[in-house]
Amino acid sequence: MTDGNNGSHRLNEHMAGMSLNDYEKAAYIPPHLRGRAYAQDGNNNYNNNNGWDKPAHRPGWRDGYSDFGGSRGGGWGGRGSSSSGYGGRSQFDERGSYGGYRGRGGYRGGGGGGGRRDHGAGYWRDGVHHIGPRNPHVEKELFGTPKDKEITHTGINFDKYDNIPVEASGRDVPAPIEEFTSPPIDAHLLSNIELARYTTPTPVQKYSIPIVMNNRDLMACAQTGSGKTGGFLFPVLSSLFEKGPTPAASGNNQDAAGNYRVSKAYPEALILAPTRELTSQIFDEAKKFAYRSWVRPCVVYGGTDVGQQLRQIESGCDVLVATPGRLVDLIERARISLSKVRFLILDEADRMLDMGFEPQIRRIVQKEDMPDVQNRQTLMFSATFPKNIQMLARDFLKEYVFLSVGRVGATSENITQKIEYVEDEDKRSALLDIMNAHLSEGLTLIFVETKRMADTLNDVLVNNNFPATSIHGDRTQRERERALEAFRAGKAPIMVATAVAARGLDIPNVTHVISYDLPNDVDDYVHRIGRTGRAGNVGVATAFFNRGNMNIVRDLVELLKEANQEIPEWLERIVRESYGGGRGGRGGRGGRGGASRDYRSRNDYSGPSRGGYQQGGGYGGGYGGGGRSNYNNNGYNTGGNGGGNGSYSYQSKTSWF
């Protein structure tokens, strides 16, 4: 892996010569034309229909890379330009990367984990967990090798996590663990963690594992790339391994009409996530850590053949990873029952609400056959928790622990952030300049705001012999999965993406993130650059800024200060000129600073509670007395008719730092 600090230094040197920070500059000159005079007739001779002449072929890349195709051809596998459609045969096995383990073709082949319970799977019998035999081929597929570039296990700056502040709010918060050991972790799960070469739990894992294994509900805020997926998979799988499956209740194989049905799935754990890509990623991790056990993970999401997914879940489904819309569809088809769910996990919960999934989520949790809040454990994970998420927590969780790891919404100091002033008409040239610098041997992720720009920019890169692909909402599910696979494998080490890939995806070895178009909200910027610098690794994030991004300039500057980043003088000058040098008005980045606090805290109340949020400091008002009858004085969901009218709340903080 390339040394991130060295890459950052080289980037600094390179940017210093680009003269991008003077927003009153003359016309920008592409790198391959520097030292050459422009045509005197006023026509730029570098304009070649697609915008630029092709530079020389790059060493180490296939000559010309024309077989990567255009963006609409999938970025590879098809020859020609963007008009070539889907292109020729893909170089990837359509069966997916899982290669037939347990009889399944893998989620990339049809969107649904599953297969028969054989080929080395374990089983539960007479109260004993029987572990299946080891399979070297499957282990290589699942865990890779120590030199596998597609898998990152421990970052070079992992020890910096010891300096991250951690706060756990709630009654009787269990003490954190310091390392992966058995107990408390199940011995077989520990062996799979060792196979994955995970050596040190991240801060969120140190707390979440004992919290969940002590049967507590959890609402966790942790910075992007901090190990949230392991934070819920490890304790959930450990519990399932130790306790075995829930005994089948009478009538479990009958649908609503009383018809006998053997193909209905009864998952023990349900994981909801907002996008197809994130569900697939979580499913991949679940496969690793459920290896050789009785637990069988499955994944269902929209945008692919529902018949394929129905066939996959027929053989059983113990851990279900799903998008809300497809899950509702399968519930309506009477193919999935939630009656045996012991664990409900909502990952990227704020994103699901932003995407309009709240009605589906509330239906799944409150109006189907899922056990009520007192008879299940509920875990919510995300990098940010605005007010509407805290309200959802009030309805779905009981006596929960609020876990805040680091400053919520802040960026990692492992990421070197560079803000460059680039006018819209100069962006393509500036991007090609950066690409020509060969600053990183890792992966480069480029974010744009529109689907059309993603395709256009991908074509520009491919036509300049850069091996690129793209991903956005208009591409088919197969195209998106192939694009992600090519990017992860380094076959197309540059990917242009819209917001579809900005949240939750864990793509190892991303060393450079470029915000070609800045988003309208600084939280989206945080999630974008969080694709690099993950799990303690270092990375570089470059953003193109101009006067069209004035709506986020104040929050952006504050974010840079929080992460101890260098702030360009011109950027500070813009803030002073536009806002008179004062912040004012929004209480700290639009209230995002308050998202790191438990709303049940006494300090967050501004006067007596009236059962809803009041204006004032933090999330003032809280949820105490005067609210709905099934919440107690402390804002807890009791599941009964208790209620109360007091305004008292508590906050006991625990930190192992």
From TrEMBL:
Enzyme class: hydrolase
Positions of the UniProt region annotated as Disordered: 39-59, 72-91, 97-119, 581-618
Locus of motif Q motif: 178-206
Cross-referenced InterPro entries: DEAD/DEAH_box_helicase_dom, Ded1/Dbp1_DEADc, Helicase_ATP-bd, Helicase_C-like, P-loop_NTPase, RNA-helicase_DEAD-box_CS, RNA_helicase_DEAD_Q_motif
CDD domains given in the database record: DEADc_DDX3_DDX4, SF2_C_DEAD
Assigned keywords, A-Z: ATP-binding, Helicase, Hydrolase, Initiation factor, Nucleotide-binding, Protein biosynthesis, RNA-binding
Signal sequence coordinates: none
One Gene Ontology term of the molecular function aspect: RNA helicase activity
Enzyme Commission number: 3.6.4.13
Residue ranges annotated for the Helicase C-terminal domain, each copy included: 414-575
Helicase ATP-binding domain sequence ranges: 209-403
DEAD-box RNA helicase Q domain: residues covered: 178-206
Catalytic activity annotation: ATP + H2O = ADP + phosphate + H(+)
Biased composition (Gly residues): 72-88, 97-114, 581-594, 609-618
Similarity comment text for this entry: Belongs to the DEAD box helicase family. DDX3/DED1 subfamily.
The name this protein goes by in its record: RNA helicase
Organism whose genome encodes this protein: Parasitella parasitica
The organism's taxonomic lineage, starting at the top: Eukaryota, Fungi, Fungi incertae sedis, Mucoromycota, Mucoromycotina
